[in-house]
Amino acid sequence: MSKKSVKFYKKYMIEISQEIKKVLSDIGLDRTESQVYILLLKKGLLNIQDIAKELALPRSSVHLACESLLVKGVAKVSMSGKRRNFYVEQPKDIEKFLAHQENELALKKSALSSILPRLTALHATAQESEPIDIEELKGEDGFVETFNRSLNQSKNGEVLRFGGDPTLFTVARDRLVKYREQRMKKKIFTKLLLPKSPFSEEELKDAPFKMREVRFLPKELYDPKVQASIWADNVTFTVWDKGLHSTIIRNKAIADFMKQLFETVWQKADKK
């Protein structure tokens, strides 16, 4: 800042003690509002043009400061024709600035209180919610992939499987031999529910060699055209339609529900 500018600044700036500056700032007045307030205390009636000239501040800044002081009850206005003159009736009117802030704060608190129950509900939901990831697969490759995905669990894990009629289960048998070998290597055990069929005895004999236990339900009660598997937090469904559509769902709540459903049916199923 040049010496000329410094002189100009000192000439037009209202001198305010550091203590008053700090208090006015602490209660919320900005620098321009403080300058306008002190000037009005000292000189009484002034219009925006006079104030801007006295303080060497832009008219727009002075206008905003005057409107703020007026709205908050600190300053008052007197009309002279079409021109408004601002003044401070008494110094203690500055207290109205705090009263205005207190009213605004009360309104904000009231508004916040009105939505707090909904915010609380959102928080509870967010805290308990889990994402539901859904992946769709098609064809024989997709079907095989639903089996391979069950290998992505810790050693000694478990697969619960709702199976269908073995006479219809002719897809990718040779490709699933490798899956079974990997499953057994990781010691992942399988529980398999099947409808009773001419192959039931054979399934029972093979089960110990495939690290699985098989139980049966009457075909008139259980004869699904959908195969479902549950492991960890995953559930898969394969629909025996023309496109052999498979879906993998990852969600703990859904997986837990399906596990409970499986165990309920499992307890009612026959062991031979």
Question: Which features does this protein show?
Answer:
disordered N terminus, Endonuclease, Chain A, two-stranded antiparallel ribbon, 10 helices, alpha+beta, rod-shaped
List the helices and strands and how they pair.
Blueprint: H1 3-12, H2 18-27, H3 31-43, H4 48-55, H5 59-71, E1 76-80, E2 83-87, H6 95-128, E3 133-137, H7 139-149, E4 158-162, H8 176-185, E5 189-195, H9 200-206, E6 212-217, E7 226-231, E8 234-239, E9 245-250, H10 252-268
Parallel strand pairs: 4-5, 5-6
Antiparallel strand pairs: 1-2, 3-9, 4-7, 7-8, 8-9
Helix pairs in contact: 3-5, 4-5
Walkthrough of the structure:
The structure is a single chain. The protein is an alpha+beta fold and 272 residues long. It folds into two domains: 3-93, Arc Repressor Mutant, subunit A, CATH 1.10.10.10; 133-268, Endonuclease, Chain A (2-Layer Sandwich), CATH 3.30.870. Helices cover 49% and strands 19% of the residues. It is built from ten helices and nine strands. The strands form two sheets. Strands 3-9-8-7-4-5-6 form a seven-stranded mixed sheet, sandwiched between helices. Strand 7 (226-231) and strand 8 (234-239) form a beta hairpin. Helix 4 crosses helix 5. The chain is rod-shaped and about 110 Å long. Residues 1-12 have low confidence and may be disordered.
